[in-house]
Amino acid sequence: KQWYQRRVAITAGERMQMSDVGMKKFVQAQEEEHIHQLQALVGFIKNYHENALRILDEVQSNIQEHAASAQSMPKEEGRPVARISSVMARTSISSPSEPRPMKPAAGPAPPAKPEAARPVAKAKALFDFEAENPTELDLKENDVVILIKQIDDNWFEGEVNGRQGFFPTNYVEVIIPL
Q1: What does the alpha-carbon distance between residue 160 and residue 27 come to, in Å, rounded to a whole number?
Q2: pLDDT for 21-78, tens place per residue?
Q3: Are 170 and 155 in contact (CB under 8 A)?
Q4: What is the rounded CA–CA span in Å between residue 64 and residue 52?
Q5: Strand order through the sheet with 172-176
Q6: Backbone phi, psi, residue 51, to 5°
Q7: In the prediction, which pLDDT does 78 show?
Q8: pLDDT at position 73, please?
Q9: Can you name the residues that pair with 155 across neighbouring β-strands?
Q10: Cα 43–47–59 angle (5° rounding)?
């Protein structure tokens, strides 16, 4: 009963002050929890990158070992050989800094045999297809489309009237396959 009387005797100002203190404690506890979570996250990320670095160091070491053992193997006569020292010294793709042995020419090369002309892959549009983005190709019924490649089971890349783009495979009948 005394507790109840004390509770009733608390003024509105005291209630406001108590709720304010309670809210500050709650926010502080939440901030501390977030800080602990962030610390844990940073620790996990750091551990991940340390492991990635360790793995990359192992890979680099294995590559260097394989390159060194490959250099010590007997070489085929006249076969160009990359030297690990020149590869490691280069920081970008460029021509080698050291000349490599070349296979001597055995005389003029025989003329190339003409290959049989391969027919151009084509398809006929069965329906109109309206492109929904710039990478797609508008088709009109009966358009003959030059097939460039099949992207997957559902899409072709092709050309019609000088325009190139993608279109659904089920909108065309293949006349000459890729």
Answers
A1: 65
A2: 888 888 888 888 777 787 888 888 888 888 888 998 888 888 888 877 777 666 555 4
A3: no
A4: 18
A5: 163-168, 155-160, 144-150, 122-125, 172-176
A6: -65, -40
A7: 45
A8: 65
A9: 168
A10: 165
The residue among 132, 162, 170 whose CA lies nearest residue 145 is: 162
Q: How far apart are CA 158 and CA 144, in angstroms?
A: 10
Q: Determine the Cα–Cα distance for residues 81 and 178; give it in Å rounded to an integer.
A: 38
- Nearest CA to 41 among 51, 53, 33? 33
Say if CB 152 and CB 137 are below 8 A apart: no
Q: Which of these ranges, 34-38, 95-99, 116-120, has the smallest mean pLDDT?
A: 95-99
Distance (Å, rounded) from C-alpha 11 to C-alpha 17? 10
- Tokens at residue 139, please? 């088709």
Select from 133, 132, 141 the least CA-distant residue to 160.
141
E-strand ranges in the chain read 122-125, 144-150, 155-160, 163-168, 172-176
Residues 6 or more apart in contact with residue 138 via CB below 8 angstroms: 129, 130, 131, 163, 165
Question: What pLDDT was estimated at residue 171?
Answer: 96
For 129, counting Cβ atoms within 10 Å of its Cβ (0-12 exposed, 13-18 middle, 19+ buried), the class is buried
Place of tokens 């027919």: 119
Pair of tokens at residue 55: 């793995």
